[in-house]
Design goal:
alpha+beta; eleven-stranded mixed beta sheet; six-stranded mixed beta sheet; 23% helix; globular
Length: 590
């Protein structure tokens, strides 16, 4: 019988305790990061910025207990801003030059702040609207985020009990989407409370469609609107009420996140940031600034940026100078003391000196904001946009054009803007190849929003709404028209092919081709559900409505590695129109 070695249990317990304390101390030495990004919320949609129409005490609290910037700038639209804040580089450099039809896809060789923090030992999670690419490795799980729950496109059809993406698989949300996203973010924080984490919460509010629980809509409507857009005739009051109600719901959810940090005693070691991705999505009070979402004037790109880190950032500070979305990555890595090695050359700078009081303000530099030719440039207090020059220190609403009085400065900034724009656009890839066949993510979904519609003469083939995002392929009225996706197969192998469809009657037939491979299928089951009820407060203008789709398992096909156009061709139509198509799925069989 072997001898049993007796171990001192007290010594073992002490050793385990010391190891636990070491791990805890190491975790505590690294600050947690929470970045909350609102969608289409303007600078003026917060009560901290003087809006009497809205109540946002929890968001305001971040700025009051921390710091805010007097002038913080983003891109004029959402996907470009998201790419820039993730990478620390102007969005054009990362390949993002639009918001749909694959123009929002961020180049795969870009490094995100999630990549950097994950490499440094952080748990990383994102909960909300991604909008920088759908298929892996464009998917958030391929961009440094261990956990993702939300949606991948720009527009979305429904904000109640809708179908979202959870680490690449569909999952139905529960209740109102902003509440549900917050639930998942809080679950992530609780799960990772003993280690450093990055929690990115890109809410989709108050982006249209304008849907919000009654509680919030009723109280904003009852309170009434007392401040209006500078040109009141352009303002739709129901849109204003709905958008601000969505902001108040979002504020309650920000409060839930802050309360959870207090409950877990993580507040003092957590950096919390709140910002928005562009100007307001309707004409409403915004400090009388010129423009709104989609333009590069002050109203379109100046947004709130609030940051709190107790004990490290002095509360109540308002920091002057021009800061921007491209500064987020270098600022976070600098504040947390982790390496930014491995990124491409950054356009942003660290704001840490200004935040910690080592610098009086953000240093002067030239900043650009653009969506294609709708561009502006800022240097110090001066803004040049559309051939006009303004001194924002004296004229924050852009009333007095100084271009004729200061022609040399106007010319200098104009030349700088044109040179920058040429530099940015030279490497834009206008043909984005959608990746298929990654073993880490065997299912690649090719949604309708990424399809190219090839209409024959007299064809009515279209998306179900003006915005391709969250839509389906509809009105397919002849077999001469067809649909393609630009696909890059990364692994030669056998693939299961599925088609998501609705059709009022069986019988439609089709063929799917990719280079030399092809597979044919037939819709044998009618499936034509009604549109899902969407409780819009105002009539929607861009988004499609939502409906369920049936998955047809077409069969297996051998695909060779390489690029090409994956074609979906209608070969037979039973009725006047071919089936509505939501997506084609290609699943690599292990």
């Amino acid at each position: 019988m072997p001898k049993i070695k007796v171990v001192n249990s007290k010594a073992v317990s002490l050793l385990l305790c010391l190891l636990s304390l070491c791990r805890f101390a190491n975790a505590q030495s690294k600050p947690n990061i929470i970045v909350i990004l609102a969608d289409d919320q303007g600078w003026g949609d917060l009560s901290i910025n003087g809006n009497a129409n809205v109540r946002t005490p929890n968001i305001d609290k971040i700025g009051k207990e921390g710091a805010r910037f007097s002038r913080f700038y983003v891109a004029p639209l959402c996907a470009p801003t998201r790419a820039g804040l993730l990478t620390g580089r102007y969005h054009y450099r990362s390949g993002v030059w639009g918001v749909s039809s694959s123009r929002e896809y961020m180049n795969l060789d870009e490094v995100t702040f999630a990549d950097l923090f994950k490499k440094a030992g952080y748990a990383t999670g994102a909960f909300g609207k991604w909008h920088n690419g759908s298929q892996y490795p464009y998917h958030p799980n391929g961009r440094g985020f261990d956990e993702f729950y939300g949606f991948l496109s720009g527009h979305y059809a429904n904000y109640f009990n809708t179908m979202l993406d959870h680490n690449g698989e569909p999952e139905r949300s529960k209740g109102y989407i902003t509440d549900d996203l917050t639930d998942k973010a809080i679950d992530f924080i609780e799960k990772n409370k003993a280690q450093p984490f990055v929690c990115y919460i890109p809410y989709n509010a108050p982006h249209s469609p304008f849907q919000v629980p009654d509680k919030y809509y009723d109280r904003v409507k009852a309170r009434g609107i007392s401040q209006f857009s500078k040109d009141k005739s352009q303002e739709e009051i129901e849109v204003t009420i709905s958008a601000l109600a969505m902001c108040e719901n979002m504020d309650d959810n920000v409060g839930r996140v802050l309360d959870k940090l207090d409950q877990l005693k993580l507040t003092d070691n957590t950096i919390v940031i709140y910002l928005t991705d562009n100007g307001p999505n309707s004409w409403r009070w915004n400090g009388d600034m010129k423009g709104r979402k989609g333009v590069a004037d002050e109203g379109g790109v100046r947004v709130p940026f609030l940051i709190r880190w107790p004990g490290k950032i002095q509360p109540g500070r308002i920091i002057s100078g021009n800061a921007a979305y491209i500064d987020l990555l270098p600022t976070l890595t600098d504040l947390a003391g982790i390496s930014a090695k491995g990124t491409k050359p950054l356009d942003g700078i660290s704001l840490k000196p200004a935040l910690t009081g080592k610098a009086a303000q953000v240093p002067e530099r030239t900043l650009f904001s653009s969506i294609n030719k709708n561009s502006s440039v800022r240097k110090g207090a001066y803004l040049f946009s559309g051939g006009s020059l303004f001194d924002l220190s004296k004229d924050s609403t852009q009333q007095n054009d100084l271009a004729a009085k200061e022609p040399e400065l106007a010319k200098t900034l104009s030349v700088a803007l044109e040179k920058w724009h040429q530099e940015m656009m030279v490497n834009i890839d206008t043909n984005r190849w959608l990746p298929v066949g990654y073993r880490q993510f065997p299912k690649a979904v090719l949604p309708s929003q990424d399809a190219v519609l090839h209409r024959s003469k007299g064809s009515t083939l279209s998306y179900s709404a003006s915005a391709p995002n969250s839509s389906w392929i509809a009105n397919w009225n002849n077999i001469e028209s067809y649909v393609t996706w630009n696909v890059e197969v990364s692994t030669t192998g056998k693939y299961q092919v599925n088609v998501l469809y609705t059709s009022p009657e069986p019988g439609d037939a089709f063929t799917i081709e990719f280079n030399k491979s092809r597979i044919s299928g037939k819709i044998t089951d009618a499936f034509d559900p009604p549109l899902i009820d969407s409780p819009d407060r105002v009539e929607r203008k861009g988004e499609s409505y939502e409906k369920e789709f049936k998955t047809l398992q077409v069969g297996e096909v051998d695909l060779q590695k390489g690029r090409g156009a994956l074609k979906l061709l209608a070969t037979y139509m039973k009725g006047r129109k071919f089936a509505d198509i939501r997506a084609v799925e290609l699943v690599l069989i292990k």
